UniProtKB/TrEMBL annotation:
GO terms for biological process: cell wall organization; peptidoglycan biosynthetic process; regulation of cell shape. InterPro entries: Lipid_II_synth_MurT (IPR043703), Mur-like_cat_sf (IPR036565), Mur_ligase_cen (IPR013221), MurT_C (IPR013564). This is Lipid II isoglutaminyl synthase (glutamine-hydrolyzing) subunit MurT. Residues 335-418 form the Lipid II isoglutaminyl synthase (glutamine-hydrolyzing) subunit MurT C-terminal domain. Keywords: ATP-binding, Cell shape, Cell wall biogenesis/degradation, Ligase, Metal-binding, Nucleotide-binding, Peptidoglycan synthesis, Zinc. It comes from Thermogemmatispora tikiterensis.
Amino acid sequence: MISGRAAGALSRRLRLGGGTSIVGLVAQRLYPDIIRHLAAQLEHGSVLVTGTNGKTTTSGFLAAILRDAGLRVWRNREGANLLRGVAGALVVRALPSGNLRRAGQAISVFEIDEAVMPQAVRLLEPRAAVFVNLFRDQLDRYGEVESVAALWRQMVKGLPETTTLVLNADDPTTASLGELARGPVLYFGLEDLTLDLSGQDGQGTAGTYQAVDSRSCVRCGSDYRYSARFYSHMGHYQCPHCGLERPAPAVRALQVRQDTFDRLRVTVETPTQLGEIVIPLPGLYNVYNALAAIAVAQALGISWEPIVSGIEQFKPAFGRGERVQVAGRTLRLLLAKNPTGLNEVLRTLFSEGTPRHILFVLNDNIADGRDVSWIWDVDFERAQGLTASLTVAGTRAFDLALRLKYAGFAPEEMTIIPSTPLRALEELIGSQPRGRKGRERGRARHQQYQPGAGAAKTSIQASPVAEEGATSPRETATPFPGYGLATALERAIEQTPVGETLFIVPTYTGLLELHRELERRGLTPHYWEGRD
């Protein structure tokens, strides 16, 4: 216990991170069964939440509900959803004796990585296991959707009768897990048919660009038929060959109305209650997240009042609709890490036809997935003509800029700021003859990348090159103002008028990098400094 907590404190002191994983990593190394030992002491047990999109928000909704119901809630709120993150969340709440502090009236709510869920279930023996959805994500790590689905099916077969499954009825893959459960199953889903994509715009063509990740029946392999589709493969479906169909949800959204960008009014029906709940977040995907949390609360016997108050007073986790004020502007961070997630963010931003100031950040680090070909399955065409300003950044900024060009964005509409200088431009500068003529020739060659040359407004700063007669290395740099995410953020803020909102849509590591930059500027606290 002491070693793990010391490692976390050292990590934070040295600014190597939040110490949210190293605590558990050290503790597990010294005591491999630490998770089982500590979790068994929780009076009200554990709830596990998994899925491709929405784990953090769903677990946040549920934690808020349970707190309002009078329980002490412990969770991995920082998003460290591997086993070491779970171990760390428990270890920091333990005494040197090996016992949890204040285990009475306590319950844990852990978001769990999709691939780690089978191990987490074995160690934590949860009261409820929540499966929010399953979409294509990080193919180089997870493989195709069916690989994760097969893992889940095998796991569900071994769950004890004491574990309640909470499943998305509108997602064929997650809903099918209910047939394998030995214990209770509770489904949630949408019933508001005005949200059906095929009936929108009066043309029947809405949603044809949706990235559909689950087409075939899990029983017989035939294609599903949909009577209503809300997005991707989420909707009301039936297999025409074997008859498998969407199960009837016990927790249902009968009507969804948007008051403002940040305010959804949802009429919810449960087996014991019918009432209206205000969800203080944008996007249809957050309706599903709220329904999942409500379903778990029902399974745990929580009354209606804390369900309503918990959701309506919910504060978004970092990057999931979070607001930050800077220089008279509002920054809104909307994480999008796969085609379905980004499609829904774009639908949320542009469905009303309002022009937005946008900063896209596309990274291809390990935590993002090295393969970024998924951007070609995203409906960027929806945003064409609706960007008041557009900045593109990240390690794969040029890949995204090319995709946007094919979506109809003119190069001069984009400010492209890569994470690092292009090697070709560095070599171009280095190859120029020394002296004044060489400098002039190099600058002339670089003009082709300037906005006036018909190319995108690209911000690139090459490595300094020592030249004859130069008073300093910086005298030979390109005329571009820089590169990297800090520069991209500054440029995007400058292009957003005072009083307006800049919407930042990053992939996962881009979100972390943005948060570090906002922390450095003193605009937001460290993400691990929040309190449950």
